[in-house]
Amino acid sequence: MEIGGLFTALLFGAIIGGLGRLVIPGRQHVSLLATILVGIVAALLGTAAATVLGVANTPGIDWIELALQVGLAGAGVTLLANRSRPKLHR
Questions:
Q1: Could you write out the DSSP letters of every residue in 19-70?
Q2: I need a labelling partner for 36 at 20 to 30 A (CA). Which of 6, 7, 27, 60 fits?
């Protein structure tokens, strides 16, 4: 992977991860690095899912692919936030 591709993946991962955090209500205690990593993984998985569904290459903006990516990022951020949140015992 070239340096330009690495920067693009980091930027796109940050955007997808940030959008994933926005769709989840409440405050998430997840670091910026974790959000970016979740965004990168969600972008890759969302693209793979869109390819399988046959909606990866559409004219214009690939809204379905973007929705899949953001949804997966939201799910990933939720999993991380719930895992790192301390459990309260009654």
A1: HHHHTS-S-----HHHHHHHHHHHHHHHHHHHHHHT-SS-SS--HHHHHHHH
A2: 60
pLDDT in tens, 28-73: 888 888 888 899 999 888 888 988 998 878 788 888 888 999 999 9
Distance CA 61, CA 74 (A): 20
- Euclidean distance between CA atoms 65 and 54, whole angstroms: 10
Does this model's pTM top 0.70? My answer is yes
Cβ–Cβ < 8 Å for 28, 81 = yes
What is the identity of the amino acid at 33? L
E-state strands within 1-90? none
